[in-house]
């Protein structure tokens, strides 16, 4: 009920703010003619006084009276009735429009809106049973609590991994730093911080993320998350053999039911494939870096003859299997190194679309392209 009262008062105030100038304009228009007539009468009286005092000659006084009389006659001959009629019609139309707008708006809301829907204040939603709340409501509840109690280390400890799971990596970094500052460092908090920093950077493991993972290993030498990401950092640096060896060593220490076994297996296979490609052992998947470097020194004709088939095969394979993030990197790099900037941008755009613009693989591809001098796709 309070909502409707407030809405009605606001609507009335808005209407009055527009109507009052219209009404005042009409009153001002009606009084303009009478005001001018009073001015002319005062002027006639002033002329008579000046003539009586001898300040002006009789002939000059007569001329002044005649001029003022002509002005009074012109004032009486103005088409005030038509002007007043037009002004009145315009003001009436304006008033009608001002009054019609809220009536139409309220009528449309009654027809299209949901006036009978009960209100859902945020405070009431946050106060209901957590089991009946959505993830967003639970996060909002935690954020409201932490805004009032910023030193609640347990709250930050709970919220940080939730931020990470729902994709709010930047907020997760802040939350992990807060819980570490208040509660102290642990392997889980440091590894979570490193993962959040990497996610915020589009999957790239920066020096800050690597430092967090190393602190996690110092607190818990067998921390799987820290080991996995540090091996991934080696792979990003091109140290594929060392990365594969680190992952293999992890497999030897993990229990059979560890959830890390599957991603480690895929990472090892990818590292071995990339190492094989870099060595030039799989030309069907595209040219190796050595072949590209050699081709760059050739004439355009010889270079095109050498790599056209390999690049075409790589492109064809990616069209058949577009989920290959490393393949898209190789295709982008091949075109860029050989000076085909337009083809490199096209490959980058197709790769991002195939991998999903919001996916970690696509963000990694964009970061890789940026390192080659290509702008990120829109």
What does this structure look like?
By secondary structure, this protein is mainly α. Among the domains are: about 1-75 and about 85-110, no CATH class; about 285-370, Serine Threonine Protein Phosphatase 5, Tetratricopeptide repeat. The chain has 17 helices and no strands. α11 (about 240-255) packs antiparallel against α12 and α15 runs parallel beside α17 (about 360-370). The chain is elongated, with a radius of gyration of 40 Å. Mean pLDDT is about 75; it is low at about 280-285.
Strand elements, count:
0
**Order of helical and strand elements:** HHHHHHHHHHHHHHHHH
Q: Estimate the strand proportion.
A: under 5%
Q: Which structural class do the helices and strands define? A: mainly alpha
- Helix coverage percent of residues? over 70%
Described by strand count, sense and barrel closure, the largest sheet is: none
* N-to-C span: 47 Å
Shape: elongated
Rg on CA atoms, Å: 40 Å
The tally of helices reads 17
Model regions low in confidence, pLDDT < 50 over at least 5 residues: 281-285
């Amino acid at each position: 009920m309070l909502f409707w009262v407030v809405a009605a008062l606001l609507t009335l105030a808005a209407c009055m703010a527009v109507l009052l100038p219209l009404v005042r304009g009409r009153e001002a228009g009606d009084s303009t003619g009478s005001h001018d007539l009073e001015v002319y009468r005062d002027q006639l009286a002033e002329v008579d006084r000046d003539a009586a005092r001898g300040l002006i000659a009789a002939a000059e006084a007569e001329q002044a009276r005649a001029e003022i009389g002509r002005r009074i006659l012109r004032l009486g001959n103005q088409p005030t009735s038509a002007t007043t009629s037009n002004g009145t019609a315009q003001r009436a139309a304006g008033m009608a429009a001002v009054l019609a707008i809220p009536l139409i708006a309220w009528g449309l809301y009654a027809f299209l809106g949901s006036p009978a829907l009960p209100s859902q204040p945020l405070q009431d939603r946050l106060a209901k049973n957590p089991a009946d709340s959505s993830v967003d409501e639970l996060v909002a509840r935690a954020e409201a609590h932490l805004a009032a109690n910023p030193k609640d280390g347990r709250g930050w400890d709970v919220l940080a991994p939730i931020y990470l799971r729902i994709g709010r990596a930047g907020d997760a970094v802040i939350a992990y730093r807060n819980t570490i500052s208040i509660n102290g460092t642990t392997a889980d908090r440091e590894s979570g911080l490193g993962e959040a920093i990497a996610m915020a950077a589009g999957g790239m493991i920066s020096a800050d993320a690597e430092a967090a993972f190393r602190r996690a290993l110092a607190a818990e030498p067998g921390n799987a998350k820290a080991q996995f990401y540090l091996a991934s950092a080696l792979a990003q640096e091109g140290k594929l053999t060392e990365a594969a060896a680190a992952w293999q060593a992890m497999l030897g220490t993990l229990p059979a039911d560890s959830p890390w076994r599957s991603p480690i297996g895929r990472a090892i296979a990818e590292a071995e494939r990339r190492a094989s490609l870099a060595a030039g052992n799989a030309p069907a998947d595209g040219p190796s870096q050595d072949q590209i470097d050699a081709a760059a020194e050739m004439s355009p004709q010889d270079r095109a003859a050498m790599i056209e088939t390999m690049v075409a095969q790589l492109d064809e394979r990616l069209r058949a299997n577009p989920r290959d993030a490393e393949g898209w990197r190789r295709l982008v790099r091949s075109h860029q190194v050989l000076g085909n900037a337009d083809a490199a941008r096209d490959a980058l755009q197709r790769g991002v679309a195939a991998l999903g613009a919001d996916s970690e693989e696509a963000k990694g591809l964009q970061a890789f392209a940026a390192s080659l001098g290509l702008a990120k796709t829109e």
